Amino acid sequence: METSAVLYAFGLTLFAGLATGIGSALAFFARTTNTRFLSVALGFSAGVMLYVSFIEIFFKAKEALVESMGEAPGTWATVAAFFGGILLIAVIDQLVPGYENPHELHTIEEMDHGLENLPKNEAHDFGKLKRMGLFTALAIGIHNFPEGLATFTAALTEPSLGVAIAVAIAIHNIPEGIAVSVPIYYATGSRKQAFKLSFLSGLAEPVGALVGYLILMPFFTPTIFGVLFAGVAGIMVFISLDELLPAAREYGEHHMAIYGLIAGMMVMALSLLLFL
Description:
The protein is mainly alpha-helical. The protein has helices at residues 3-17, 20-29, 35-69, 71-94, 110-113, 120-123, 126-157, 159-188, 191-201, 204-216, 222-251, 254-274. The radius of gyration is 19 Å and the shape is globular.
């Protein structure tokens, strides 16, 4: 495998992961949350992920597995790997409780007005707030690990697909950056510290890509590719349905989220058609 292709895939993954820093920067500089923009953007990201997962990634995985295993076994393996990816990210999600879960919604306004919204036993317990922020950063890191592997795998096998997935993952990392910044800022009073930890939490994505590359690339057969790609499709479908669409609706009007979703599907469809 060419070094340039690996570096390209790794660069896209790094870009997607460090988008948590954009969310943190918004919390750092902005005074209010642009909920309409985030609602459309998150819906758009979900549209890209859902379309590319069902239309492109799942069937590429199936082609590889059918070719290496035969029609029936390959199809069964594709479906099993798809739901295996969903199960993996669902288990990770369940292991992260309550406020620390990056799928919980947070806004920039919490930086100034959110202390009163926390439980009284937490509002002035700055040690607990700092732990909350650190656990949130860790939780986002754990979530970003398989996302990094997904972006890297897609970019390595089909560069144009990797760009679309990297952009979608980057958009969905913006609210996660806010989720890390809020409790860290409360605990330390330092926006700089909040930004730094939020930014660093995104490094889990390139780390996931690196681990995947070192472990899997020596054994990268069509079967491994098919299983991994089907699992990636499952991961992205779960993220879209469990995180992006609910967050998009919470941030803004229901219709704005759906318009973003449809726009994401259309842009993804057009980009795939242009590469035929």
